Amino acid sequence: MRTESGASDPVLIGITGARARASRVMGMPELLLGGIVDLHHVPYTTAVAAAGGTPVQLTRDARPADLVRRLDGVVVAGGDDVDPRLYGSRPGLHATHIDPDRDAFELELIELALRQNTPLLGICRGCQLLNVVRGGTLVDHLPLDAGEAHGQLAYPLHARVHGLDLVRGELLEHVLPADVGVNSFHHQSVAELGRGVVPIATAPDGVCEAIRIGSRALGVQWHPEYLREQPDPVFTWLVDAARRSARAETMTINEEPAHVATS
User: Fold this and answer.
1) Could you say which of 3.30.930.10, 3.30.1020.10, 1.20.1050.10, 3.40.50.880 is the CATH number of the domain covering 12-255?
2) Which residues are catalytic?
3) What are the GO cellular component annotations (predicted)?
4) pTM metric for this prediction
């Protein structure tokens, strides 16, 4: 939390999640099946903690402005498809479940984080939202029988199934090794780039795998939280950026001159 007590304060990283009927949860007591639950995948919190951050699971009942004011960093997690109407398209044959309420909450959270320069990591769907919030578009569906078969779910979630072509001089070149491999289970990707969106990595077949907005907002199409080697460099980047940001803000607060009362 951003306080005046110093750099030893925990680095609070908010993580978004899904909301669904309790019937989607195996083993839920019958009495509760008609209820609504917030769903958060444990690997996100584990990855944040492994990188030195303090994970905070976010509910959409909170106001995004209040969250951004108190958090040091944000993870916009993966999930179902972004509503294609947000980027001028419409649901097609391969569309998954669409949750307009989640879209609205996360888009506002992203906009505020960008405005406040709060370090942000968008993963899979979160990466796509980073592009959409700036007016970009998405590839509605990547065929399984073409390129790297990005939406193939035959492999374990931790399996590194293809490499990355990192743009030289860009952020990820300083975060990941040149021979890095990543997992892949997405059926959409960034298409036309939004305002200020910079592509910084592609798959061998040319599909966009990572973008940035400025120096504190990073989107990756793969799922680093599922990779076995933790802490993952991408989460370490986020926590380190959040720690530096919180420390700089604390120094600014402490350097403000005291107001002397006069009679």
Assistant:
1) 3.40.50.880
2) 124, 223, 225
3) cytosol
4) 0.90
